[in-house]
Specification:
This protein is an alpha/beta fold and 260 residues long. The chain has a single domain (17-258), classed as Rossmann fold (3-Layer(aba) Sandwich). It is built from eight helices and nine strands. The chain has helices at 26-37, 49-56, 72-86, 109-137, 160-178, 211-223, 233-244, 247-258; strands spanning 17-21, 41-45, 62-64, 91-94, 141-145, 184-190, 193-194, 209-210, 228-231. Helix 3 packs parallel to helix 4 and helix 4 (109-137) runs parallel beside helix 5 (160-178). The longest helix has 29 residues, at 109-137. InterPro entries: NAD(P)-bd_dom_sf, SDR_fam. This is Short-subunit dehydrogenase. One of its GO terms (molecular function) is oxidoreductase activity. Pfam families: adh_short.
């Protein structure tokens, strides 16, 4: 029982219908390219149509459907079009993210609002639209791209980190609620990945990997039916150990990290 995969395993991607939200750059774009190469039908959504077209690279399997993830109505428009054209969805990947290096004394309401809307509220807008159909059909999966920044109160992530912690919590409760209904729920917690989001970081980023390697880790984890897909292990396992420490030790470790 304990060795059984928590989620459905994927033996192939040929013909699978994947809606990838946040596909214009970084991890989302890398996952999209990988899945397209494996024969999946991939709907690419994000704000920037030009970037989505570059990811699609004229693939007959790609559908470019720009949208503002912070607009609840936009989710329904794109979803209804996909259902009309494809008849259903096999996997929806929530990958849209906004990251600002912010310390507590640097908070600005517009940046706070934008990060929460993009990283967290947009997921709820999407779930409201997609879940009734998935539950009615009794199959399909969702993947939430969170972050190891959700494990601990890491430096420079005053708004970003709490939104990712919320996604971790959300993924756990979604699994408890949706798994009995036949749906898969995958939680992805990347460490440092070389993308536009991390390009301006001025602090050490240990064990950084490329977006392509991150995509491979995500797809491999989904294929194996894992619930939490975290990487690179040499970094994420260390954070998981710190997470288990009593607060006196845990906060001391965090304090040392803040000095970096």
């Amino acid at each position: 029982m304990f060795l059984k995969a928590l989620n459905p395993r994927w033996s192939h991607w040929q013909g699978k219908r994947v809606w990838l939200v946040g596909a214009s750059s970084g991890i989302g774009a890398a996952v999209a390219r990988d899945l397209l190469q494996q024969g999946a039908r991939v709907a690419l959504s994000a704000r920037r149509q030009d970037a989505l077209l570059a990811v699609a690279a004229n693939s007959a399997l790609a559908s470019v459907l720009p949208m503002d993830v912070t607009d609840p109505a936009a989710w329904r428009v794109v979803h209804d079009r996909l259902i009309q054209e494809w008849g259903g969805l096999d996997l929806i990947v929530f990958c849209a993210a906004q990251y600002e290096q912010i310390r507590p004394w640097e908070l600005q309401s517009d940046k706070v609002r934008g990060t929460i809307e993009t990283n967290l509220s947009s997921v709820y807008y999407g779930l409201e639209v997609i879940l009734p159909g998935l539950i009615a059909r009794g199959n399909g999966s969702i993947a939430l791209i969170a972050s190891v920044a959700g494990y601990l109160g890491l430096p420079n992530a005053t708004v970003y980190g709490p939104t990712k912690a919320a996604l971790i919590n959300l993924a756990e409760l979604l699994y408890a609620e949706l798994h009995p209904k036949g749906l898969g729920v995958y939680l992805v917690n990347p460490g440092f990945v070389k993308t536009k989001l991390t390009a301006n970081n001025k602090f050490p980023m240990p064990a950084m990997i490329s977006a392509n390697e991150a995509a491979r880790q995500i797809i491999d984890g989904i294929e194996k039916g894992q619930f939490e897909i975290h990487f690179p292990k040499r970094f994420t396992r260390l954070l998981k150990v710190i997470e288990l420490l009593p607060y006196r030790l845990r906060l001391t470790a965090l304090g040392q990290m803040m000095k970096q």
